[in-house]
């Protein structure tokens, strides 16, 4: 990880805590709060905290279903 990426993780950790905070390095860094377990198939998608959301759609990560890519809800 780069120093910039570590800084992003730290800023998010300060805001949401670190009990469930997880991250994955895909083509880009994705930070998520795995409140239902980090790799549980039934957990569904977790909103990616470091990518923008406009309130109507957001980027999410499904570690149990599709651990190699990010998904986006339809606009």
Describe this structure in words.
The protein is α+β, with helices and mostly antiparallel strands and 75 residues long. 19% of the residues lie in helices and 31% in strands. It has a 3-stranded antiparallel sheet, with no helix packed on it. The longest helix is centred in the N-terminal third of the chain and has 14 residues, at 3-16. The protein is globular. The N and C termini lie far apart (31 Å). The relative contact order is 0.18.
Q: Which features does this protein show?
A:
75 residues, 3-stranded antiparallel sheet, alpha+beta, single chain, 19% helix
Q: Any idea what the shape is?
A: globular
SSE succession: HEEEEE
Number of strands: 5
**Helicity, in percent?**
10-25%
How many separate domains?
1
- The termini sit apart by 31 Å
Mean pLDDT level: 87
C-alpha-based Rg, rounded: 12 Å
């Amino acid at each position: 990880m780069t120093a910039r990426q570590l800084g992003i993780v730290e800023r998010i950790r300060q805001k949401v805590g670190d009990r469930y905070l997880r991250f994955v390095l895909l083509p880009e860094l994705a930070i998520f709060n795995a409140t239902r377990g980090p790799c549980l198939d039934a957990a569904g998608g977790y909103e990616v905290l470091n990518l923008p959301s406009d309130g109507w759609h957001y980027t999410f990560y499904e570690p149990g279903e599709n651990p190699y890519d990010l998904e986006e809800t339809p606009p």
